[in-house]
């Protein structure tokens, strides 16, 4: 969506929040209103009401909102003094609290800190006035009544603080057209079906166990296959791209992270230290300092550079328990990590190589929509938020920008959002149903090489400092598998599928031949099971479909006699009878091509 489009939606949603507040206050004249902003996919408003809202109430409120929309009131802006504002909201204690804060300055009407002095202003439509600085649509009639829906009721503390009164929050959504609303509702339903926590359980990919601890997933054998295949893929791609593999321990002495500068600033995101022989050790939250040590372990010549050190490193980070979420927010993560040590004159080429790797993965996984968010520094932050080296910032940013522009990469620039030690690129991707995931980060680093005194001997025989590129295109196994579960709805392409085929004997007479077929496929390196349970054939087919197993190989007397299998796809499509050799040849083609389809002709 274009920025103007987003801005338009924001106005519509924020206006809808006002309309909703009017409808709720008409229903509960004693009700108190708190705040009601537009949010990513809609809007909400928080209320303090004499009774708990019921689902029926939402229907009534929604119906009344449509009427207000049709009444087509203008939104009118007015700046006021704090006294005038307090008089207007004398029966609205939450608003008065906000007005007092606005008067003091430093926070906006939602109580969020802001750098600028704040004006106090009203927006009025018809009988309803809100403390607000907008923006809004011009008239309520610009909200499409057919593209509006109230979604849910939730509890929320005033100002997010549990010591404050609990309010009732109504969530709603609003779009420009009825089709957009419908698409949004479809996406929500589809996302529920594809929820990686639900599929992860049904397909036996991973579990979280109370006794092991929150955010520490256990990978079941099917998850183990996914991980093995992803690692095989990464190692193969990285080998071809000139990476070498290293291994580093999970714990380290405190001094290493003091040296890297992660301690004490990053301590909050780390597991607390353990003490051994009078020395403090930490679980590693990242792999970088270990790789820097490997780089620095001997004298390096320009001939060895770029040096690309890769490792699927397991890191441990402390995430608050309230923020943990399935595989997407965890405390232990296996990262597709690598650090590239590159001389400045080779940076552009190397950086493009990394971007290329991303694009190859996107193509392989059928990720059609992505954006690279390029965060750069700003001059005011130099020496505070950012390493104080303006020329190096400008140079690396320009090189990265040029590379992406030349490569036709879809990127947006976010000034002032860089990491402390260099410009970074966050990669956002969209799943098959159009939900956004932020997958991986790519960073250029010129601070760590300084801290670790990294150097190499350049062509003229002098010491030179390399730049470091941090990159993790396949993110962590946790996040990647969480994404892929939703993206494929659990129906993985054959090369990834934990079980690639299930052999289904129709009668007991066929079990032995079914086992022979399994053995032949197994010898060819495929993952195959036999369903020799007592269930009927239809039930076995259904079970295999529920597990999203790509191929069902059905064997009766006829097939057995012909050394053949009757092939059925998880989609329900029937390929018919194929000899075992024919099927193996086809399976090989599909897997070797890492095809998205289940059938690839010769
Ligand atoms: Zn407003
Ligand atoms: Zn790193």
Count of DSSP-assigned helices? 17
> How many angstroms does the end-to-end distance come to?
40 Å
Structural class: alpha+beta
Bound molecules: zinc ion
Detail the poorly predicted runs: none
Q: Taking strands numbered 1, 2, ... along the chain, how are they ordered across the largest sheet? A: 11-15-16-23-20-19-17-18
Question: Average pLDDT, to the nearest integer?
Answer: 93
Largest sheet: 8 strands, mixed
Number of strands: 28
Assign an overall shape.
globular
Radius of gyration: 29 Å
State the share of residues found in helices, binned by percent: 25-40%
- Could you tell me the strand content as a percent range? 15-25%
Account of the protein in words:
The protein is α+β, with helices and mostly antiparallel strands and 602 residues long. The protein contains 17 helices and 28 strands. The strands form 7 sheets. It has an 8-stranded mixed β-sheet with strand order 11-15-16-23-20-19-17-18, with helices on both faces. Strands 1, 2, 3, 7 and 8 form a 5-stranded antiparallel β-sheet that branches. The structure holds zinc ion (ZN) (2 copies). One zinc ion is lined by residues 286, 288, 339, 470.
């Amino acid at each position: 969506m274009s920025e103007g489009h987003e801005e338009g939606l924001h106005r519509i949603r924020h206006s809808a929040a006002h309309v909703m507040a009017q409808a709720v206050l008409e229903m509960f004249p004693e009700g108190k209103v708190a705040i009601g902003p537009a949010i990513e996919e809609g809007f909400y408003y928080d209320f303090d009401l004499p009774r708990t809202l019921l689902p029926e109430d939402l229907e009534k409120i929604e119906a009344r909102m449509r009427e207000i929309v049709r009444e087509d009131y203008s939104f009118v802006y007015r700046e006021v003094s704090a006294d005038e504002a307090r008089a207007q909201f004398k029966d609205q204690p939450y608003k008065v609290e906000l007005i007092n804060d606005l008067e003091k300055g430093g926070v906006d009407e939602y109580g969020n800190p802001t750098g600028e002095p704040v004006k106090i202003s009203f927006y009025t439509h018809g009988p309803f006035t809100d403390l607000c600085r907008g923006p809004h649509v011009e008239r309520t009639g610009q909200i499409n009544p057919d593209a509006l829906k109230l979604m849910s009721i939730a509890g929320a503390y005033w100002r997010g603080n549990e010591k404050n009164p609990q309010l009732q929050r109504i969530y709603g959504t609003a779009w420009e057209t009825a089709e957009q609303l419908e698409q949004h509702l479809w996406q929500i339903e589809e996302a529920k079906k594809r929820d990686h926590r639900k599929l992860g359980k049904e397909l036996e990919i991973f579990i979280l166990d109370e006794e092991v601890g929150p955010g520490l997933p256990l990978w079941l054998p099917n998850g183990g296959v996914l991980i093995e295949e992803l690692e095989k893929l990464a190692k193969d791609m990285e080998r071809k791209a000139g990476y070498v593999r290293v291994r580093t321990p999970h714990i380290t002495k405190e001094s290493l992270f003091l040296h890297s500068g992660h301690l004490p600033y990053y301590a909050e995101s780390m597991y607390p230290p353990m003490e051994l022989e009078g020395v403090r050790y930490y679980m590693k939250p990242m792999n970088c300092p270990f790789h820097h040590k490997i780089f620095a372990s001997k004298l390096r010549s320009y001939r060895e550079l770029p040096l690309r050190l890769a490792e699927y490193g397991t890191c441990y980070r402390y995430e608050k328990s309230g923020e943990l979420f399935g595989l997407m927010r965890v405390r232990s993560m296996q990262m597709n990590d690598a650090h590239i040590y590159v001389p400045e004159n080779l940076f552009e080429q190397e950086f493009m190589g990394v971007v290329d790797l991303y694009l190859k993965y996107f193509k392989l996984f059928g990720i059609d929509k992505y954006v690279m968010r390029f965060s750069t520094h700003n001059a005011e932050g130099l020496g505070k938020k950012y390493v104080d080296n303006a020329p190096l910032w400008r140079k690396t940013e320009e090189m990265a920008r040029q590379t992406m522009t030349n490569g036709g990469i879809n990127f947006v620039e976010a000034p002032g959002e860089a990491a402390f030690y260099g410009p970074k690129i966050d990669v956002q991707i969209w799943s098959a149903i159009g939900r956004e995931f932020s997958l991986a980060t790519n960073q250029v680093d010129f601070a760590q090489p300084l801290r670790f005194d990294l150097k190499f001997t350049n062509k003229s025989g002098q010491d030179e400092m390399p730049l470091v590129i941090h990159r993790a295109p396949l993110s962590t196994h946790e996040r990647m598998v969480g994404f892929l579960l939703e993206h494929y709805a659990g129906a993985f392409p054959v090369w990834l599928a934990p079980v690639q085929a299930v052999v289904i004997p129709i009668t007991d007479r066929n079990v032995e031949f079914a086992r022979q077929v399994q053995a032949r496929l197994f010898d060819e390196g495929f993952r195959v099971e036999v369903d020799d349970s007592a269930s009927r054939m239809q039930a076995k087919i259904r079970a295999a479909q529920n597990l999203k197993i790509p191929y069902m190989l059905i064997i009766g007397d006829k097939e057995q006699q012909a050394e053949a299998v009757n092939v059925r796809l998880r989609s329900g499509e029937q390929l018919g009878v194929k000899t075992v050799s024919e099927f193996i040849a086809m399976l090989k083609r599909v897997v070797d091509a890492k095809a998205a389809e289940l059938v690839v002709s010769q």
